[in-house]
Amino acid sequence: MTEENKEPRFPAMPSTSPAETFPAHTPAASQIFTTVLTHGPLTRQEAARRTGLSPAAVTKAVRPLLEAGYLVEDAGAEVRPPVGRPASPVRVDGGRALFVGLKVTGDEIIGVLTDLCCRIRVARRVPLSGRAPRQVLTVAADLVRELLTEAEGFGVRVLGLGIAVAGDVDRAAGTVRYSPFLDWRDVPLAGLAEEAAGLPVTVDNDVRALTVAEQWFGDGVGLSDFAVVTVGAGIGCGLVVHGRVVSGAHGVAGEIGHVPVVPDGPPCHCGDRGCLEAVASDAAITARVGEVTGVPVADAAEALALARRGDAGARAVYARAGEAIGRGIATVANLLGPERVIISGEGLAAYDLFAGQIRDAFTAAAFGSAARCEVRTRPLPFEEWARGAAATAIQSFVGR
User: Region entry Disordered: which residue ranges (predicted)?
Assistant: First the structure.
């Protein structure tokens, strides 16, 4: 670590009681719970059909979850099958537990308090005065403390904390190996946060965290293969293949932002040239608009306003960005054949300026049946990214 990043500390919170463990001690129990969480309410028969488990295995898995209050009988939604007795569906009791999620950007931390069904109960934003680990962790500690105080009003324990950070994140080790927007290298974030918060902590790449939320609670529910592509400060991609979020052997799967799309194009901070991120990120678009038009533009909002006023040069920059994004999405479709690609991120503010180019470039570059992939936009504020961080904490808690 650099001297600046070395051994940051932030104030510990009051001691808490021992962490509660999830009463699902087998993979089958975790699978049943996750299935009910994402698809419920479900009868036991429906849960067996969806998971491929036997009715006896489902009954055995459900019993301790009911006893511990994580599942409840949904008697008001009784289902009458074609034959046999009516069956009461089971559903997750969202109010049984709470989780905290933090999304860290280069300028602020967005925090949410969610229930077990990942519904946001409280949301907060706090600015960052600096990006050094010590400064960020101090602000994060204050924000977590505030959300824990809010949780007391619900009378339910907080059982996990998820933190989402852009860049190369080793979730298993809880380490941010490299975050370009924070200029962090090898920061053991999970350990530091766990020491302070007294909670189990999950740290993951922000786009992967958003993908978990989409898989369990959003537009990816029920899909075996899909991708989330985010455009904005960077270009990210989360991948779900055969029902699993893909991290890759080294934790960097889905880095389409560093796929070259423009031969001999502009330099990228990764050291290559013509990367998708060097053409279509907010910073790249802003810089290019200034070069092409000769008009000083301070940020993406000013670049967008200039294009919306009809400046031909600015509009051409957005068109080129849309073509690059379309080719990037086609690369994902050609390699993995997802059923759906969900486009999100703050860069969607300019979607009307490059939607046609994304569509046309995707259609031209997608090979054969890959072109059947549905491309869907889903504008999501950063609170939803923080919700993704909470989703990773829920995922870790239930052992999935």
Answer: 1-23
